[in-house]
Protein: Leucine rich repeat containing 10
Organism: Sphenodon punctatus
Amino acid sequence: MGNTFRAIVAFIPSDACQNCLLGNLEEMPIDKMVDLSGRQLRRFPLRVCSFKELVKLYLSDNNLHSLPPEMEQLQNLQILALDFNNFSTLPLAVCSLQQLGILYLGNNRLDDLPLELSLLQNLQTLWIESNCLTQLPAVVCRLRLLKTLHAGSNGLRTLPSQLRRLRELRTIWLSGNQLADFPPVLLHMPFLEVIDVDRNAIRSFPNLLHLSGLKLVIYDHNPCRNAPKVAKGVRRVGRWSEESPEPRKRSGLVERGN
């Protein structure tokens, strides 16, 4: 079905037309996955709620702005993709899916997240990039198993100090925000492995030598006057990244043990 035809059919509210967008979706898929991405959907198909063993649900690139309460029946869902839709608030039905491990919310119109999101205590990966966030929602700091946070392309100017509670966090992507300073809280998170602050407004970087878990720091496209100092073996992407991360030894000195 072509995209133009789908777009026309999507405006017709009859069940027949909506079923046309869904295709062959009569029984629970054997692989426990339903992919309805790019179908021009304007309402969530209630039929999917009967697939109670569903593990993966992809609803990316549609025209959804709400979800029905019946969605809470999908208690085995582990991956939910709602990116590239029209959500201005996160439907509370999502917060009832306590087995979720990966949640895609990027490219919507979210300016906050509900406190009920803290019920998702199995969540390990959260994508909230390209929304309307001017501050990181406090509830994110209560997702104790979170390992990967994608929060780029928002309007973030700083990060809450409570973020340091997320001791499982390994990767944080903050590209394309409005950070004028390197977020101080990140200096108290030695377990971080990847820090991306590309495309911000950071003019000076603090010493990152003490971040023992750090493997990669991306700081390109900032008006910085210095490169962050990092431990040996840590990769840097940005201005002066080709320089040695360690101070050069004075010539004529012989390293101990040689």
Summary: Confidence is low (pLDDT under 50) at residues 4-12, 244-258. The longest helix spans residues 3-10.
